[in-house]
Amino acid sequence: MIIEVAGSIGIGVLSRSPALLSFGGDSVVELFSAFVVMNHLRRDVAGSAGMGRKTALATTLMLFSLVPAIGIGTVYSYVSGLRPEGSLPGVAVAAGAVFVMPYFWLEKRRIGKETRCLPLSVDALESATCFFMSLALLTGLLAEYLFGLWWADYLATAVILVFVTKEAQESFVEVRNGLARAQSKGLPAV
């Protein structure tokens, strides 16, 4: 994951690719989310529902913060006339994510269901979205690299923005449903 973050952001800066930078931003949130979830699992061995909801809410808020960052950065890049350049290393980063993310997604989802761990289930949603974003990124970068379609980078960024927004909304619904279940059982909301 650290390689994905460093590669997508570093190559994104060098190739002036909003799509790679957006993907890297989401990867930063995913990495931080994984750290928060891992910390939750280590510190909350008793399985406190309140702590789980706080952790899930923190990761959800991180996702929502990414939406305006991607949107504003992309609009600024486009309006300022930035033309992304094709990047073979960028294609390699995207292809690596397409290959690895389904495994993380399915395993986190399975373990989250088995353990009834809300933060891990939310983190699985992030991995699923990362997989679909990496497909969009790979398609855009290949079109840009192979055919010189610089605007494909912006199209891929728009698709990534849609996925991040959807991921944030799904994560919020998951957290809200977890809160509703807790309240119906008479447990504290947070």
What is the compact description of this entry?
The protein has six helices and no strands.
Q: How many H/I helices?
A: 6
Gyration radius (Cα, Å) is 18 Å
* Average pLDDT: 85
Strand content: under 5%
Helix content: over 70%
> What best-fitting shape do the alpha-carbon axes yield?
elongated
Q: State the secondary-structure class.
A: mainly alpha
- How many structural domains are formed by the residues? 1
Compute the number of strand runs. Answer: 0
How is the biggest beta sheet arranged? Answer: none
Taking pLDDT < 50 over at least 5 consecutive residues as the criterion, the unreliable ranges are none
H/E element order: HHHHHH
Distance between the termini: 30 Å
Question: Can you walk me through this structure?
Answer:
The structure is a single chain. With 190 residues, the protein is an all-alpha fold. The chain has one domain. Helix content is 86%, strand content 0%. The chain has helices at 2-15, 18-43, 49-79, 88-115, 118-147, 151-184. Helix 1 packs antiparallel against helix 2. The two termini are 30 Å apart. The relative contact order is 0.17. The model has no long low-confidence stretch (mean pLDDT 85).
